[in-house]
Design brief:
Layout lengths: L1 H22 L9 E15 L12 E16 L2 E16 L6 E16 L5 E11 L4 E6 L6 E7 L5 E14 L2 E14 L2 H4 L18 E18 L2 E12 L8 E11 L4 E12 L3 E17 L1
Antiparallel strand pairs: 1-2, 1-14, 2-3, 3-4, 4-5, 5-8, 6-7, 8-9, 9-10, 10-11, 11-12, 12-13, 13-14
Pfam families: DUF3078
Protein name: DUF3078 domain-containing protein
Keywords: Signal
C-alpha cells in the first residue's frame, strides 16, 4: 500500500510538471526585493439532531483555524523562499467530556537557491521544522465507571522535526518547484519523560532510544509544491515531502502529503477541503489520514 501511494504521488507530480511546462506561458521575472502575502482562515462545521431524529446521529460543532504566510526574497539569480503553515482544530460531540483535536500543526519551510545560467535549476539549501501546538491524547473508557479516560502522548516539541541540507531545486516559479537534497540531516526531538517509563523499548516513541530526548538521522529528502487554478475562483495546492534514512531501514520512506482545495465564494468567504496523508513508521506503521471540509472565513494580508 505504501509503495502504491508513493508511486501515485510521483506520477502525479511528474504529470503536473509536464502539464505546466506545456500549457503555461513563460512567467515574467519577479522584481528584486521582498514579497509578502498571507491568509488567515477559520473553517466551521456543525451538525444538530433533535430527539425525534430516528436516523441516528450525534450533534457536534467543530472549528479549524489556519495560517498560511509567505515571505520571499529575490536578488537577480538568488532566491530565498519562506513559508509558515499553522493550523489548529477542535471538535466537540454532544455528551463527550472533552473537546478533541482534529488538526494541530506548526511548520516552517525555507529554501535558498542560486540559479544556474539560462536554466530552471538552482543550487539550493533548505530547512524544514515542524511540531504541534498543544497536548495530544489517546482516549479510552473506564471499564467500571464508563467514564472517558485520556492519556497524554504528545505535546509541543514532542515530537519536533528539524531537517536541513544542500541539494538541487527545479523551480518554474514560486508556485511550482521540486527540491532534491541527497545529504539531509534530520533531528527528532521528544520529551525524555516519554522515553523513561518502566519497560520502555528503544525506538518505541518516534524512534528515540530509552532515556534519550533526540534521534539523529542522515538521509535523502525530496520536497515539492504546486499551486494552480482549476477553474475560476477554484485553487488547489499540493505539498509533498519524502524522506529516507540511510542509517536505518532506508527502504521505509516517510511520506507527508497535504492537499488544500479552496473554492472562493467572495473576498472573505470560501469553502475548503483539506486532505493530509502521513506515513512514518517511527510513529505508527500505518497511514495517518486527516480530512477537513467546511465553510471558511478568510482574511488576506
Amino acid at each position: 500500500m505504501k509503495k502504491l501511494v508513493l508511486l501515485l504521488a510521483v506520477l502525479f507530480a511528474a504529470n503536473l510538471v509536464s502539464a505546466q511546462e506545456e500549457e503555461k506561458k513563460e512567467d515574467e521575472v519577479p522584481p528584486n526585493g521582498w514579497s509578502k502575502t498571507g491568509t488567515i482562515q477559520l473553517l466551521f462545521n456543525q451538525s444538530s439532531f433533535n430527539n425525534e431524529w430516528i436516523g441516528g446521529g450525534t450533534s457536534s460543532i467543530a472549528g479549524n483555524l489556519t495560517l498560511n504566510y509567505d515571505f520571499n526574497y529575490r536578488m537577480d539569480d538568488f532566491t530565498w523562499d519562506n513559508k509558515i503553515l499553522a493550523n489548529y482544530g477542535l471538535t466537540k460531540l454532544k455528551g463527550d467530556d472533552y473537546a478533541r483535536k482534529t488538526s494541530d500543526r506548526l511548520e516552517f519551510n525555507s529554501i535558498a537557491g542560486k540559479q544556474l545560467p539560462n536554466s530552471n535549476w538552482y543550487y539550493s539549501y533548505f530547512l524544514n521544522f515542524r511540531t504541534q501546538f498543544t497536548k495530544g491524547y489517546v482516549y479510552s473508557e473506564d471499564a467500571e465507571t464508563g467514564e472517558t479516560i485520556r492519556t497524554e502522548t504528545t505535546h509541543f516539541l514532542s515530537p519536533g522535526y528539524l531537517q536541513t541540507g544542500p541539494g538541487m531545486m527545479w523551480k518554474k516559479n514560486e508556485n511550482l518547484y521540486v527540491n532534491i537534497a541527497p545529504a539531509t540531516a534530520r533531528l527528532i526531538f521528544v520529551d525524555s519523560d516519554f522515553t523513561s517509563t518502566p519497560g520502555y523499548v528503544d525506538g518505541q516513541y518516534f524512534g528515540v532510544d530509552q532515556g534519550k530526548s533526540t534521534r539523529f538521522e542522515f538521509g535523502a529528502s525530496v520536497s515539492a509544491f504546486a499551486k494552480y487554478e482549476i477553474l475560476e475562483n477554484v485553487v488547489m495546492e499540493h505539498s509533498l515531502g519524502l524522506y529516507s534514512n540511510y542509517l536505518d531501514k532506508p527502504g521505509n520512506i516517510d511520506i507527508d502529503y497535504l492537499m488544500n482545495l479552496q473554492l472562493g465564494i467572495n473576498k472573505y468567504i470560501s469553502a475548503n477541503l483539506l486532505f493530509q496523508a502521513i506515513y512514518d513508521d517511527n510513529a505508527v506503521a500505518a497511514f495517518q489520514i486527516r480530512e477537513v471540509f467546511g465553510l471558511g472565513l478568510n482574511y488576506n494580508f
